[in-house]
Amino acid sequence: MSTQRKALTPDQAAALVPDGATVMIGGFLGVGSPRRVIDALVARGAKGLTVIGNDTGRPDLGIGKLVVAGCVARAIVSHIGTNPVTQQKMIAGEIEVELVPQGTLAERIRAGGAGLGGILTPTGVGTSVAEGKQVLTVDGRDYLLEKPLRADVALLHCFEADYYANLTYRLTAQNFNPLMAMAAKVVIAEPDEVVPIGVIPPDHVRTPGILVTHLVERPH
Amino acid sequence: MSTQRKALTPDQAAALVPDGATVMIGGFLGVGSPRRVIDALVARGAKGLTVIGNDTGRPDLGIGKLVVAGCVARAIVSHIGTNPVTQQKMIAGEIEVELVPQGTLAERIRAGGAGLGGILTPTGVGTSVAEGKQVLTVDGRDYLLEKPLRADVALLHCFEADYYANLTYRLTAQNFNPLMAMAAKVVIAEPDEVVPIGVIPPDHVRTPGILVTHLVERPH
Amino acid sequence: MDAKEIIARRVAQELRDRTLVNLGIGLPTLVARYVPDGMLVAFQSENGIIGFGARPPEGMEDPNLTDAGGGFISALPGAYAFDSATSFALIRGGHLEMTVLGGLQVDATGRLANWMVPGKMVAGMGGAMDLVAGARRVIVAMQHAARGEAKIVPELTLPPTSARPVSLVVTDLAVIEPTPKGLVLRERAPGVSVEEILAATTAPLTIPDTVPEMRL
Amino acid sequence: MDAKEIIARRVAQELRDRTLVNLGIGLPTLVARYVPDGMLVAFQSENGIIGFGARPPEGMEDPNLTDAGGGFISALPGAYAFDSATSFALIRGGHLEMTVLGGLQVDATGRLANWMVPGKMVAGMGGAMDLVAGARRVIVAMQHAARGEAKIVPELTLPPTSARPVSLVVTDLAVIEPTPKGLVLRERAPGVSVEEILAATTAPLTIPDTVPEMRL
């Protein structure tokens, strides 16, 4: 519960991500990604990260910047088509890529945060995604058993944060952020705006401060 | 998609619930339950319903009114302790009760609405809830495979609805309502307030109108 | 009318009033331009919005509001924004009436391949596998052939997107329906003969007695 | 100090700063009154709110804002309202530092029974099974014995709430900790002797060399 504690600079936040850590990063093609913390990770020269996110962005955008800077050893994502550097590094054996259908990725992260042992999805049955996975038949239909994902650190972007670190998200910048807020040991949120407690009504909070370990300062 | 169509009276809404139907009803001890539609169902003398909800309320509250009026043949709920009539009818063999842990009930309804074949939960392992269910071991821990729940009709309460039937909920009156909105063929929402399109910002809508089949008129 | 417009106009005829529809990136996006008059269709962008509109006026773009391709969009009154788990709950849960997707190949059983070319291009499936598994109707919108090579083939040589057959294939030459008995030619593009279609297709095609022209 | 106050005050000492805590209906609710000064605890009510407060002034009750027992509550600044799937994701996902629950029986292995008495009372488990399965620490707050009958027993005669042992049992007579080697007596209520506790307990109890009095 990030209550009334000092906000971190992006550099301080990046220092909380150890080399080799498994890191969830919110965003969809960089929209809803914590840009300032990503830049700080690149500046620090982070190494050997396993990154869980929707995609690897573009070479100059979102998770793509971490890929280009050589911070990423492994990526668990649904799409790499917009970042040719990821493809090159994958072919060169410099990055390991696990491709996960987008809806399955969302449910696996949600399951990790919700204490579920897994979920059964029809997505991927009869495709290469099914390789090595258990197929269960429920009421006559086949499903893949997909296991939960959790991380050491989640790096989120949000629209507003109050001093308790209650968070709101904005339009399509929401995407994976609220799911990841539930699924990591250390949760760091980078807000566009910081507001006093009580400014965000209880029905508009999307991630409660109790889940957020650290808040990054608002942009200057 | 309930778009600019005429709102129903509670009686018209109750007429859309056939005798013998499986009906999800939002609410927690009556808070967030569609009170006017429930009263209309009692007035109509509905029969043989399978009701899915958190609890059976009290004899004069929420789903409890349907139990007392003899509308319910079967209840899939997490709690009946606040309604002695449910217990009496259960012992007399007039009502069948399936007790489901509250978190499992929420996930089963969510799975039904999300197209999942089931979820694995640690809840209920080693208890009577596990009887007849498949136990799966994932990464060394035991989980119950719990199957999705769906219904013919969902009866919801909401705070605001706009003319598209985009819905918001209020404080603790939210509970099972947004989950049930995803998990039934016919979805009927009973609002406290009706507002023009655009009054509810996109980030505040909790159930999109595309899921709502019918809207009940606002209270007089 | 160019190839893309033919495809988009014909796919738009498959839209149904008051339903939720997802359009894939690229060609499928064009379908939104041809919604029949008076019809209300809710378009979902799987990155998190139902009810988006055109790119806003210059200087009014919002970095927190884009489509699944990363392009700036606007939101219509009554729009709904949501997270990725909700997005795919809508898709997987049968709440989506229709999805329109691009394709690399479709085979004789109606299976689609559209997410990778081994050894050449690995895009990733993004939301495509969920969309094909979950939407009530799956429409493939693609050029009939690519650089002289057939895309409607006897058997996929590329990894499938789903084991589930698609509902309809709309190309610049034809409308083809996968059925349990194989692919059936339903319509020809304006001025295109059955022979031209057969010549551009390597999968077996059933040809009914009459194959009408598309009405665009 | 009556029995309930002893229990509530002692349980409150288990609270930790800046954590999420769920209090069951009835006796456990009283714990909220004794939060140590300067400590910030976020209380969750599983029907859908974190950060609730006391009953509002007369005439200001909101029918859309109640606790899990159906009683009117208020919301504190910075509160968060949510649906039932989110509520139990918080509980099951390990985000809850502690839950305090009432009990009918606890056995020698630390297993709890608290949701039904076959043939007599079927309340239903409500959220109890999820709370015991999911909370990091599970505290049972109950009277040591009921109508002269022991509630801390060698083996449950009532259906268990979970196979998982609870973390601590706090009664009006004692604090007892379930361990892999069985139940250990940790503290005595003020003025209560070890002999009195043993007399009111049918489960085997390990008695350490010193059993301090609770400091309330």
From TrEMBL, chains A, B:
UniProt keyword Transferase present: yes
Gene3D superfamilies in UniProt: Glutaconate Coenzyme A-transferase
Signal peptide: none
GO molecular function, one term: CoA-transferase activity
InterPro entries, per the entry: 3-oxoacid_CoA-transf_A (IPR012792), CoA_trans_fam_I (IPR004165), CoA_transf_BS (IPR004163), NagB/RpiA_transferase-like (IPR037171)
Keywords: Transferase
Source superkingdom: Bacteria
Family to which this protein belongs: Belongs to the 3-oxoacid CoA-transferase subunit A family.
PANTHER family reported in the protein's UniProt record: ACETATE COA-TRANSFERASE SUBUNIT ALPHA, KETOACID-COENZYME A TRANSFERASE
NCBIfam families from the UniProt entry: pcaI_scoA_fam (TIGR02429)
Name under which the protein is recorded: 3-oxoacid CoA-transferase subunit A
Taxon lineage: Bacteria, Pseudomonadati, Pseudomonadota, Alphaproteobacteria, Acetobacterales
UniProtKB/TrEMBL annotation, chains C, D:
GO molecular function: CoA-transferase activity
Keyword DNA-binding: no
Gene3D superfamilies per the UniProt record, alphabetical: Glutaconate Coenzyme A-transferase
PROSITE patterns attached to this UniProt entry: COA_TRANSF_2
Protein's recorded name: 3-oxoacid CoA-transferase subunit B
Family statement: Belongs to the 3-oxoacid CoA-transferase subunit B family.
Superkingdom classification of source: Bacteria
Organism: Neoroseomonas marina
Keywords recorded for this protein, A-Z: Transferase
